[in-house]
Amino acid sequence: MFKRSSVWRGLTLVFSLLLAISLMAGSILETYRTSVDAFFNTRSQLTETEVDETGEAWSYVSKFKTAKEAFEGLKEFAIRESQETVALLKNDGNALPLTKDAKITMLGVRSYAPVYGSSGGSITDGNATVQIFDCFTERGFQLNPSVQAAYAKYFADKTWTKPRFGGGIIPEYAEITAYNDPSELTLDELTALNADFRKDYAEYSDAAIVVVGRPGSEAGNGYYPGKDGLAEGVSTVTGNILSLSDEEMAMINEAKANL
Questions:
Q1: Which one of the record's GO molecular function terms can you name (predicted)?
Q2: What pLDDT sits at residue 150?
């Protein structure tokens, strides 16, 4: 009887341990299911909708007749939304609005590789992303080609992620996606990429635009205050990662001094 009780106690302990591990694993996988799906190329949830052939199931009828019309409508709405949500904090010297044919110099790695959104929730579809400089060109502005050439050379061998809607991966260059490092280039690094990157400053001096950005995610490691949030060698104006880094500040000073 004693031996039999010991066996049952042993089995109970083993199954209790397995149950605890299963519950913990299930909770962890559910929390990070977006990242797990992205890694294993799987889908952990599926929404099925019953179709009512009578046409009375919907109280809203879209004005769009095709997917292309819907896409263009969403694009137009996104443009209006951005115009109504941007905050202009300062406009010394009436720098804005820019004239239609202004010649502009854009600085900062994010002027070439912007942050298109977070990698949680409704992420950006990589098929719909547009480069900032392409947007400016489409609106009639002329951009400094010497500076663009330097950034184009820098990103030539960088890894572009393969975004997938619902997969938790945003369109981005992997090498500059980090919570603890803005990955901004120094002026010396720009010079090494293109020794003549300053040669067109005089011609493209109607305005200077310095673009900065930080990636974000619901499931990411996140930002930490002080030294805990800074990678080795990274220094910022306030000592926190969400303030301008020394390299970003140098880009702003470069624009102020030369443009």
A1: hydrolase activity, hydrolyzing O-glycosyl compounds
A2: 96
